[in-house]
Amino acid sequence: MRNVKVGFVGLGNIGRPMALRLAATEGIDLQVYDVAPDPVAELVAAGATAVGTVAELDVDVVCVMVRDDAQVRAVAADVPKDRVLVVHSTVAPETPAELTAAGHRVLDAPVSGGPMGAAEGSLAIMVGGAADAFDAARPALEAMGTKVVHAGPVGAGTRMKLARNLIHFVAFTAVTEAQRLAEAAGLDLAALGEVVRHTDAITGGPGAIMYRTTTAPIAPDDFWHGVFSHVAALGEKDLGFAIALADELGVDVPLAREALPRLGKGLGL
């Protein structure tokens, strides 16, 4: 069985370690392109072949991890349309369909896990696209990620990534709110951060409630009704206490105030 020929364009903060994982994978012949010479030299030292332009990539699959939609389109313009174009950049929801309409075999495959996950080869990769294109790119995807999800047709990977990152950045905003409360209460913020990371690693953090396949209301005889009733009771109690403490200390906690009346309904109760 011949090796899979993979091209990688965009050797930045996450793209470089992703490409290094490909270079180290048996059964993959890697070609790379980037405007910056240093990461290209590092990849060549790791066993990849450098090309002078995107158009020179002689590969089956082209992985793209560049800055934005405009750069993705610029790269795509130089990729032959019989190749599988794997867009790892997080782009606008309509961009993968636009590239497909232009004749490209597109997989939108944004990643989650950051530079550390890229370096370890443990990224989550959310993929949208046709089954044959997914099968062609699978060896490369599995070399870079330990959780590769074929989310659906073109565009599904991007939509899943946006939903995932909504959690991420709303949670970050909630963290800043909690830090202001903790600081006003005279607590050690670094120690609080250690507690959050420790317990989220045990419980799964926000993902701990994401097991149902629907957001519809839960029937009273459903297993999850009892589970989420318990979650809601604890959450409403603790949010109430936190809001009361914030009022006492004069700290603004708008996300907590929004969460209190929405928690039970959001859980399907």
Structure description:
51% of the residues lie in helices and 16% in strands. A six-stranded parallel beta sheet has the order 3-2-1-4-5-6, sandwiched between helices. Strands 7-8-9 form a three-stranded mixed beta sheet. Helix 1 packs parallel to helix 5 and helix 9 (223-249) packs antiparallel against helix 10. The protein has helices at 15-23, 37-45, 69-76, 95-101, 114-120, 131-144, 156-184, 189-203, 223-249, 254-266; strands spanning 4-9, 28-33, 49-50, 61-64, 84-87, 105-108, 111-112, 123-128, 145-152. The chain has two domains: 4-160, NAD(P)-binding Rossmann-like Domain (Rossmann fold); 211-269, N-(1-d-carboxylethyl)-l-norvaline Dehydrogenase, domain 2 (Orthogonal Bundle), CATH 1.10.1040.10. The chain is α/β, with parallel strands linked by helices and 269 residues long.
Structure summary:
It contains ten helices and nine strands. It is an alpha/beta fold and 269 residues long. It has a six-stranded parallel beta sheet, sandwiched between helices.
Ordered list of secondary-structure elements with their pairings:
Blueprint (H helix, E strand, L loop, with lengths): L3 E6 L5 H9 L4 E6 L3 H9 L3 E2 L10 E4 L4 H8 L7 E4 L7 H7 L3 E4 L2 E2 L1 H7 L2 E6 L2 H14 E8 L3 H29 L4 H15 L19 H27 L4 H13 L3
Parallel strand pairs: 1-2, 1-4, 2-3, 4-5, 5-6, 8-9
Antiparallel strand pairs: 7-8
Query: What is the CATH homology-level superfamily of the largest domain?
Result: NAD(P)-binding Rossmann-like Domain
Distance between the termini: 54 Å
Q: What is the oligomeric state here?
A: single chain
Can you count the helices? 10
How do the strands of the widest beta sheet line up side by side? 3-2-1-4-5-6
Order of helices and strands: EHEHEEHEHEEHEHEHHHH
Identify the CATH architecture of the largest domain: 3-Layer(aba) Sandwich
What is the highest CATH level, the class of the largest domain? Alpha Beta
Q: Poorly predicted ranges (pLDDT <50, ≥5 residues)?
A: none
* Relative helix content: 40-55%
